[in-house]
């Protein structure tokens, strides 16, 4: 995982604003400490034969970004992301940033698409990325438009930056500040 970004100016500004407006100034990490990554858990228990591909897709995101970390859910806990195998086309149902359901559809696999790329792509939707079709193989979010020969499961620099921004904004909010409620979006 990359080293975490330090945000001393942002932390100081938020603390000063909270003090000016009568709120607590203790919600931010000290300026000399990095912000912790937001942990998003996933349950791949129903991903059947795609379990290893799902775990690899999550590991690729963990290697690629700092502001969010995908972890398998602990036993007895509720996951942010449910991952299921089915016979349809791969898709993600997002309920809000970092939350939703991913379907690893056998239809795309049967047509020859790479399972790790599918997993990383669908997790990208849960992390806030849209499809970018048509697109080159170097764009993870180009999805199926890159063709079956494309096996690249890695996000490009722009995709990484967008996820960092999505979760960096979530990390910068003071503790206890609710996120913006999401709407259910289905993407393939």
Ranges with pLDDT <50 over ≥5 residues? 1-31, 175-185
Mean pLDDT over all positions: 82
Q: Briefly note the structural class of the backbone.
A: alpha/beta
What spatial form do the alpha-carbon principal axes imply? Answer: globular
**Structural Rg:** 18 Å
Number of strands: 6
What is the makeup of the main sheet? 6 strands, mixed
C-alpha termini separation:
27 Å
Determine the fraction of residues in helical runs and give it as a percent range: 25-40%
Number of helices: 5
User: SSE string, helix = H, strand = E?
Assistant: HEHEEEEHHHE
**Spatial order of the strands forming the largest sheet:** 2-1-3-5-4-6
User: How much beta, percentage-wise?
Assistant: 15-25%
Written account of the structure:
The chain has 188 residues and is of the alpha/beta class. The protein is built from five helices and six strands, in the order αβαββββαααβ. The chain has a six-stranded mixed beta sheet. Helix 2 crosses helix 4. It is globular, with a radius of gyration of 18 Å. The chain starts with 7 loop residues before the first helix and ends with a strand. Mean pLDDT is 82; it is low at 1-31 and 175-185.
């Amino acid at each position: 995982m990359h080293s975490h970004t330090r945000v001393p100016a942002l932390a100081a500004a938020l603390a000063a604003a909270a003090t000016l407006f009568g709120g607590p100034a203790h919600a931010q990490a000290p300026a000399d400490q990095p912000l912790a990554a937001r942990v998003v858990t996933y349950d791949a228990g129903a991903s059947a034969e795609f379990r290893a591909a799902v775990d690899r897709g999550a590991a690729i995101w963990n290697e690629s970004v700092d502001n969010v970390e995908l972890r398998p859910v602990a036993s007895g806990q509720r996951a942010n992301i449910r991952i299921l195998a089915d016979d349809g086309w791969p898709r993600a149902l997002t309920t809000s940033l970092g939350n939703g359901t991913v379907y690893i559809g056998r239809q795309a696999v049967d047509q020859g698409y790479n399972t790790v790329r599918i997993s990383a792509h669908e997790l990208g939707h849960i992390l806030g990325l849209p499809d970018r079709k048509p697109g080159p193989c170097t764009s993870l979010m180009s999805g199926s438009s890159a063709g079956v020969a494309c096996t690249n499961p890695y996000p490009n620099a722009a995709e990484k930056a967008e996820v960092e921004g999505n979760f960096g904004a979530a990390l910068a909010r003071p503790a206890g500040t609710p996120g913006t409620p999401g709407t259910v979006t289905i993407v393939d």
